[in-house]
Amino acid sequence: MKRLLPALMLLILQLPARGQGYDPAKVGKKAAAAYRKALETASEGRFREAISQIDLAIAADPRFVDAYLSRAGLHGELKEYAQAVEQYEKAFSLDQGYTAEYRLPYAINLAGMGAFSKAKEALDIFLSSTTPDERSRKAATYRLECMTFALSADSIKPGRNYVFSPRNMGDSINSPDSEYFPALTIDGKTLVFTRRLGGRNEDFFMSHRQTDGWSRADALNGEINSALNEGAQTLSLDGQLLFFTGCNFPDGFGNCDLYFSIRTRTGWSLPKNLGEDINTESWESAPSLSPDKRELYFASSMPGGLGGSDIWVTRRGANGRWSEPENLGPTVNTAGNESCPFIHADNQTLYFTSNGHRGYGGDDLFLTRRKPDGGWSAPENLGYPINTIENEGSMVVAADGRTAFYASDRADSRGGLDLYTFELREDVRPVRTLWVEGQVIDSITRYGLPSAVELVDLKTGLRLSRIQTDEEGYYMMPLPLGSDYAFHVNRKGYLFFSGNFPFSARVPDSTYRMDIPLQPVRKDAQITLRNIFFATGNFSLRPESAAELDIIVRWLQENPGVRIRINGHTDNVGQAADNMTLSTRRARAVTEYLQRKGIEASRLSFQGYGATRPVAPNTDDAGRARNRRTELEIISQ
Fold first, then answer.
1. Which of 120, 180, 337, 408 has the fewest CB atoms within 10 Å, i.e. the most exposed one?
2. Is 634 found in the same domain as 535?
3. Are residues 371 and 492 in the same domain?
């Protein structure tokens, strides 16, 4: 079957002849014959071979303008923009009038190599000095808008010294088939991607990072791959859950639906449709799971959207059911198409593709950041050279915030689309994210406890993540850098756990292992409240204490029969009497806050101990900091 010529090639080969200087009828027979053969070869998609045949035509007639123009068009289709520009300029030098209509594809290729100013000049000449047909005029006007954006957009300014050098991920990952839609675990050691086998069947493959590179990718084991098309997947950060797009499945509600599969000891489970609350008769695709597994972003053309394809989000409730999808709204979505959402491990930065926001042409990559009120910032174009005049596809960013992965058909592709990795420009990076992992256990029996684990930004009070451990109490929680966090673990019938990660002033280099023994609710059980903060030498509660204080309120409401005492402690700096007074006033300030939130005074008491009960030597700053603490103790239940 002959391959149809791409639209740009058709435009180039069908443009009318203009001018008087060059006469195609006077081209020699040998050159004309080679040229006709080249056009036949090009119509079959054999562009390299066609270029060689055009070279024979040019050798026979060095003033063969049509041959230069067609050679330029072929280089453009191969994304060899510089060579295309060179051939156009040779043709222009031979006859300005005959080639006037070709200023449009010339400008497009100039833009392809990043010469936006020169491209704009060529478009201005094309529109002012020719009388193009309606189709060409619209195309030129659209491209002119793109070039104007490219020249004025602030997004390209930080990238002027940015070196964009995507690296092919190699033969262990890529093959003569197409590979796309990469997905990573938070530790960056496991990669799952879609491969289109034989140009038809889409399946999932997995590779593992080793000391000397990536292992050879194997098809996912279990029941997930089939003779149907599975693709466009998202992987939970712990690598245990996969959401994906299944097309033309027997139980589907539309052409493409969202499904999920769970990793078990024997492999990936049989996929399950997310149901008619999510899937519709329209198209649903490209899911992206939030790091806490509580939000699922995806693209859909379902009714109620703002354009052809919009980005939506559904949230998983306490009962495990997914909510009715919510459109991300006009800040993110447009009358055009938005797709390929990717929420980073920081749970704050969302990348997506769009042809509705201003860009360089076609689908561009954008980012939007979650605001303190839960809304999204105005989308930001990732800029050239990450975005180009071509359609950009899905992109994911590793937890380190700088390493990006995407699919492309660059010159060194093994065949079709390959997976590439590159360093993301600094101003469009998400927050670098570490993680804490461990097991929640009963402090007495030492058995694992399924529990809720949450991370709260102390400055904004925003809950960044809330996850559920597995049945044995194991968990993994992302830790974005740059802020101070309260870390809480809760389970009914147990005293909650309070942890703290102070990341605003320091940048740790490693991840954390934290096994958490929860104490059953019983008399004399106590915990240190690590996120209660006071002004230095004062008993005034600092605003960032609110997150932990509200956790105490909620816990007391869930355990109505419990009475507690708040214990205050200081280090040994200063007079003993002053320390005793300060610790007492600080403990009282906590109880007064709890009372203001509705906790009965009869359930609360407080006690100051000054420096009389140290938990560490008062010989250095670290020890004294541990001794300055507030505790919660159960008096009765």
1. 337
2. yes
3. no
